[in-house]
Design a protein that fits this description.
The protein is α/β, with parallel strands linked by helices. It folds into 2 domains: about 130 residues, 3-Layer(aba) Sandwich (Cytidine Deaminase, domain 2); about 220 residues, Dihydrofolate Reductase, subunit A. The strands form 3 sheets. It has a 9-stranded mixed β-sheet. A 5-stranded mixed β-sheet has the order 2-1-3-4-5, sandwiched between helices. α4 links the parallel β4 and β5. α3 packs parallel to α4. The longest helix is centred in the first third of the chain and has 14 residues. The radius of gyration is 23 Å and the shape is globular. The two termini are about 25 Å apart. Converts 2,5-diamino-6-(ribosylamino)-4(3h)-pyrimidinone 5'-phosphate into 5-amino-6-(ribosylamino)-2,4(1h,3h)-pyrimidinedione 5'-phosphate. Keywords: Hydrolase, Metal-binding, Multifunctional enzyme, NADP, Oxidoreductase, Riboflavin biosynthesis, Zinc.
Length: about 375
């Protein structure tokens, strides 16, 4: 694979623009990857496009449409290998061939088994110069959820916690509104909107009766301008409910987005709203989390946003299933009787504690947002 140094400065600039275009699909493309494309001819941009929504034109298609006849002889900079298979749209590799582009630079190969190098081969077999690997790290970062599903057959899991300075998430009574401030909660809405699904438990539903939806009114004005409310994609709400405690009257069902109830035994859904479905995960006393994640991957869930209490948070951490830990640290002290961050009953030695690497620190008013990856 070529290194970045083997590409020209202009190549890097145009691929960077393609990556910025791809970011415009963060809130809309799921379950498809976020992809941008720039067409360049004689050093001038002749076409630009990004993939906005599954079933709509892919980035290459939109860029070719923008370029028209100018696409002939152009170089295509695309953030992910052009597809080679027929889905809801024809292969993008074929579209580039038919348009007469002379060169295709891809940031990375597509790990989707339906593509996996076939798109680049199709282009090369047609006599088009192909290169891959330009700004690949940025492209990987942009599509972590999709790549996780393709490579490991499970969603990318983000665990969110709002905690006090002494690591507490709620008072002993369960009172937790609000530990974090309004700016932090607005940031959570943006991250929820970028997720495919929100996972929680029946205990949370029974205690708080939340909707677990994206509250558009909390979006910043610049994001509202980019994404009108009618384009907002509400994530699926997934509730672990092994003992069938969630009732049809829960506020979850007031939002039209799907609700999937997870248990080890089926229930009668006759009285539940039409947006309710159930998933049976074989087991008896607890939900098999790895098995559940495999099922969610089969249902095309790329990014899973985890909002739950200490027990479920601890179970995901203990099973090494958290890919990104997001902590909103509020300047409050709740005391030793307040509820802790997570339960890890099997952890008895400090040497066995999981280690995390801090990747980003942000401030939201008096709150500090800390983003960690597992080491």
């Amino acid at each position: 694979m070529p290194t970045t140094s083997q590409f020209s400065k202009e190549d890097q600039q145009f691929m960077q623009l393609a990556l910025e275009l791809a970011k415009q699909g963060i809130y809309t493309t799921s379950p498809n990857p976020r992809v941008g494309c720039v067409l360049v001819k004689n050093g001038e941009i002749v076409g630009k496009g990004f993939h906005a929504k599954a079933g709509k034109g892919h980035a290459e298609v939109m860029a070719l449409k923008d370029a028209g006849e100018n696409a002939k002889g152009a170089t295509a900079y695309v953030t992910l290998e052009p597809c080679s298979h027929y889905g809801r749209t024809p292969p993008c590799a074929l579209g580039l061939i038919n348009a007469g582009v002379s060169r295709v630079v891809a940031a990375m190969q597509d790990p989707n088994p339906q593509v996996a190098g076939r798109g680049l081969k199709m282009l090369a077999d047609a006599g088009i110069e192909t290169q891959v690997g330009l700004l690949s790290e940025q492209a990987e970062l942009l599509n972590r959820p999709f790549l996780m599903r393709m490579r490991q057959n499970r969603p990318f899991v983000q665990l969110k916690m709002a905690i006090s300075l002494d690591g507490r998430t709620a008072m002993a009574s369960g009172e937790s509104k609000w530990i974090s401030n309004e700016q932090s909660r607005a940031d959570v809405q943006k991250l929820r909107a970028a997720s495919c699904a929100i996972l929680s438990t029946s205990a949370t539903v029974l205690h708080d009766d939340p909707r677990l939806n994206v509250r558009y009114e909390q979006f910043p004005d610049d994001l509202k301008a980019q994404y009108p409310q009618e384009k907002l994609r509400q994530p699926v709400r997934i509730i672990l409910d092994n003992h069938h405690k969630v009732r049809p009257t829960a506020r979850l069902f007031e939002c039209d987005a799907p609700v999937w109830l997870i248990s080890s035994t089926p229930r009668d859904l006759a009285d539940y709203p039409a947006n309710c479905d159930q998933i049976i995960v074989p087991n008896h006393d607890f939900i098999d989390l790895p098995a559940l994640l495999r099922i969610l991957a089969e249902r095309q869930i790329n990014a899973l946003w985890l909002e739950a209490g200490a027990t479920l948070a601890g179970a995901f951490i203990e099973n090494k299933l958290v890919d990104e830990l997001i902590v909103y640290l509020a300047p409050k002290i709740l005391g030793d009787k307040a509820r802790g961050f997570c339960k890890l009953p099997h952890l008895t030695h400090l040497a066995d504690a999981s280690n995390w690497e801090c990747k980003q620190i942000e401030t939201f008013g008096s709150d500090i947002k800390l983003t960690y990856y597992p080491k």
